[in-house]
Amino acid sequence: MSISMVLLDFPAEVLLCIADKLDKAKDLFALSCLTRATNFLFLPYLYNFNVRYQRSSALLWGVVHNQPSLVDTMCQYQADTNTTDEKSRTPIFHAIRAENVTMIRRLLSDKRTDINWQDRNKQTPLLYAMGRRLSSIALLLLDFKPFLDEKDRKQRSAIWYAIAHCDEGLVQALLQRGSDVRRKDYKGRLPTDFAIFKKNENIIRMLLYHPDPKTGKSLLEDGNARDRYLRRAVKASLQDIILLLVAHGADPNIRNDSDETLLHQAADKGDKEMALQLLNYGRTPFQIAAENGHKAITRLLLTHSDVDINALDFNGATALCLAIQNNNTDIAMQILTEDHVEVNAAGRRGMTALHSATEMGNIPIIAALLAKNDLDPNTLDEEKMGAPDPRCFSGRFTRDVLRRLLCRETIYFNHKYGCREESPLCVASKLGHIEITRLLLRHKPRPDINFKTYMEYTPLILAASGGHLGIVELLLEDESLDVAATDISNDTALCHAARNGHEQVVMRLCEDPRARSGDYVKKAIKEALHCEIRLYLHRQLNEQGNLAIGL
C-alpha cells in the first residue's frame, strides 16, 4: 500500500494538522493533487502559504499568464497586490504590458494596489504605459487618479511622454487633470519648449492656453513667457504659433541674437506668407473699439464708414465675438441690430458668440442670438464643448441661461463632451444640480436619460455615486430609465450608492422594482462599507425569497 493511500485513511483533522506543519509549497501541492477531496482540503492552505511565505508569487504568475480566476482567488486570500518581480514591477505593470484591460481594472479595484508604485527605473504604471505608447491604457489609468508629475530615472514625466509621442488626446487629458506645465525635464526644458522642438502646433496651443493652477493665468498672459516662446517659434518656423503669440501681445518687433526683427527673419527665409501676415498685423479699428468697449467709436464707424462688421482677427473672431468675450453688452447688442451679422464665427479656442455669452451668463445677448434664424446652437468649440457647456454648471451657468437655451427646440443635448464623454445631463447629475437636471428632463425632445459616458456611467449611476437623492428621485420618475444599467465594471447605481455609503439613495433605489435584481443586490452587499447598508440589503434579499449571503 502506497504512502498516499495510507494518508487518505487519516481523518481530515489529522490531515489538516499535517498541512500546518509542512514548510514547502511543493509538499502542499503534492497533497492537494492526490484526489479531488484533498484538492478541496489543501488548496486553501497552498494559497495561504503562498501569501505568507512566497510573497504572493502566484498572483504575479496569474497576471503574467492571464489567469483571471487565479488572480481573483489570490486577491480573496489577501495576496499582496504590490508584490514585485526582479525589476521591482508589481502585477499592474505586467497587466499593462499585456494590454489586459480587464486585469488592470481587477487589480486597481483592490484599494491596496499602489497606482503610484515606482519600478527599478522609477517608472510608475502611468509612465510605463506611456513609455510603451499605450494611449488607451494610459487614459484608463488616469481615471484612477495617479500622481501626474512623478518623474522616472531620466526625469521624464507623463506630460513629457505625451508630447514626445505627439499624443494630443493624452496631453489634453493630462492638462484637464492638472498636470504641471512648468516643470523642467532632464534637459532643462519646459513642456512648451519641448512641444516647440517637436513642432506640434496643436499641443503648443494647448500648453499656451493652459492656466496655471496657482495664479489662474495662462502662458499667453505672461509677457516674459510670450516673448521667449516667440523667439523659439520663429527659430522653428512655426507660423501659426508666431501669429498666435503676436495676437496675444508678444512683441512683433522683438529681435533675435543677430538683432533681426521678425520681419527681417521672414525676409531672410523668403517666407512670403509670414511677411504678409506681419505687415497686416493687428485688428481693424472696429474690432479694437468693440473689444475695448468704445461704444461711441463703434457707432461712428457704423454710421460714417463702410466697415466690415464680419471681419476676422487672427483667431477667427469677429467684432461681435470680441465684444461678448469682454462683456461689452451694449456694443454687442448694437452689432446684432445690423443686417447680415455673422453669428456663427468661431474665435479663440473655437468659441462662437453663443459659447461666450453662455460662459459669461449674459442673458440679453443669449436672447438676441437665439432670435437669429441662422444661429447654429449646436456648434462645438475646440474642446468639443457646445453652448450648454457642462464645465459652466458649477460657475456662472444659471437656470435662466439654460431656460433661454431650451427655448430653441433644435438644440442638441446628447453630445459627448470632453475626454470623459459626458452629456450635460450626466454632468448636472454628477454635480448635484437638481434644478438644471429638472430643466433638462423637461425639454422636448428630451435628452437621453440612459446616456453612457466613457466609463459607461449613466446619469443615475453618477447621481447615486454622489449621493444626490433629489436627482435620483427625478430620474426614477421616467419609465424609460434603465435602473439596472451597469458601468464598465458591471456595477449598477445601487452598487455605487452602497459602496459610497449613501444609505438614503440605497433605500430609494430598493423601493423601485426595477432595481431589485437579486444578483445586483448581492453585489451591492459585497461592495457596501457600512453595516447598516449591508443589513438593509440583506433584508431586501430575504423579502424577495433569495438566500442571504454571509456578511
UniProtKB/TrEMBL annotation:
<dbReference type="Pfam" id="PF12796">
    <property type="entry name" value="Ank_2"/>
</dbReference>
<dbReference type="Pfam" id="PF00023">
    <property type="entry name" value="Ank"/>
</dbReference>
<keyword id="KW-0677">Repeat</keyword>
<dbReference type="Pfam" id="PF13637">
    <property type="entry name" value="Ank_4"/>
</dbReference>
<dbReference type="InterPro" id="IPR036770">
    <property type="entry name" value="Ankyrin_rpt-contain_sf"/>
</dbReference>
<feature type="repeat" description="ANK">
    <location>
        <begin position="281"/>
        <end position="314"/>
    </location>
</feature>
<protein>
    <recommendedName>
        <fullName>F-box domain-containing protein</fullName>
    </recommendedName>
</protein>
<keyword id="KW-0040">ANK repeat</keyword>
<dbReference type="InterPro" id="IPR002110">
    <property type="entry name" value="Ankyrin_rpt"/>
</dbReference>
<feature type="repeat" description="ANK">
    <location>
        <begin position="349"/>
        <end position="382"/>
    </location>
</feature>
